[in-house]
Automatic annotation (TrEMBL):
The keyword Cell wall biogenesis/degradation does not apply. Keywords: Hydrolase. One of its GO terms (molecular function) is hydrolase activity. Residues 39-269 form the AB hydrolase-1 domain. This is Alpha/beta hydrolase.
Length: 285
């Protein structure tokens, strides 16, 4: 069972805790207010560990909500062998949520996390109240099976130019996109102590396999997902092509869509000052 959050802490200094369930010790961080509503559980993107969450977004949500982020099995400081499918990741997330003692949660999934969120809501609809899914697409979505190729290309591009690959993967190459990328990467370094373990090559390869499988999978019937869903992305996402976001919003019967201009995969981080109030308003409805 989790401890109660302390509203004085921020993403920069919140301690990392663990909970063990299903043979896995999950590393997580928890902060925020004593809101009587469901907590917000955050689902990580490809190759991410806890330190990859934007502090402005997490702290912004934590003003009004209890917010919990955790490392997937076999990723960062969580034990076990990494999952090779979105379904496995969803089952692990359900195990984690139940181990934390929550009967119902809101989900915030970014990129791969948004795919995992879709699987969770299909597997355990009663566990979810609302979902925010950003930079993501549906199973079988256009270009999703090619994420591995785009990722490897931009990793090489980053290595050759001494840039973090996220500068290319998450942001546009326009002046505002380049500036937003630099600001985002600087925010990720604000936490200086008790940092998470980096993802291993084995875990990255497992996740890329899961993404390829998701991209090749027949589309799910999302018409039965009647939960309120906030869907967001940039208009120029290279990793998960932006048309997937429009497709997802069309196929979810109770969805709202936000598309940010001149932005890519990391649009909600680039436009955090606009996104956080919109997300809080959505969760408050």
């Amino acid at each position: 069972m989790s401890t109660q959050p302390n509203s004085a802490v921020t993403w920069k200094n919140v301690p990392t805790q663990t909970v063990t369930a299903g043979g896995v010790t999950f590393a997580y961080r928890e902060l925020g207010t004593h809101n009587p509503g469901p907590p917000v559980v955050c689902l990580l993107h490809l190759a991410a560990v806890l330190d990859n969450w934007d502090p402005r977004v997490i702290d912004g949500l934590a003003v009004k909500h209890r917010v919990i982020a955790f490392d997937n099995r076999g990723v960062g400081a969580s034990s076990g062998s990494p999952a090779t499918s979105m379904e496995e990741m969803a089952r692990d997330a359900i195990t984690f949520i139940k181990a934390m003692g929550f009967d119902q949660v809101d989900l915030f999934g970014f990129s791969m996390g948004g795919m995992v969120a879709q699987e969770i809501v299909l597997m355990a609809p009663q566990l979810i109240r609302r979902m925010i899914i950003t930079g993501t697409g549906p199973a079988g979505g256009e270009g999703i099976s090619k994420v591995a190729r785009v990722t490897y290309l931009d990793m090489v591009r980053g290595w050759l130019t001494f840039h973090d690959p996220k500068q290319f993967l998450f942001f546009t190459r326009t002046p505002s996109g380049i500036r937003a990328g630099k600001e985002f990467l600087a925010r990720l370094k604000e936490r200086s102590s008790d940092r998470d373990k980096e993802i291993t090559i084995t875990a990255l390869q497992a996740q890329l396999k899961a993404l390829r499988r998701w991209g090749e999978k027949p589309p799910a019937d999302l018409s039965k997902v009647h939960h309120p869903v906030l869907v967001a992305n940039g208009d120029s996402d290279r990793m998960v092509p932006s048309q997937n976001t429009h497709d997802l919003a069309r196929r979810l019967p109770n969805s709202e869509l936000i598309i940010y201009p001149d932005s890519g995969h990391g649009a909600v981080f680039q436009f955090h000052a606009d996104f956080v109030p919109k997300a809080l308003a959505f969760l408050a409805r």
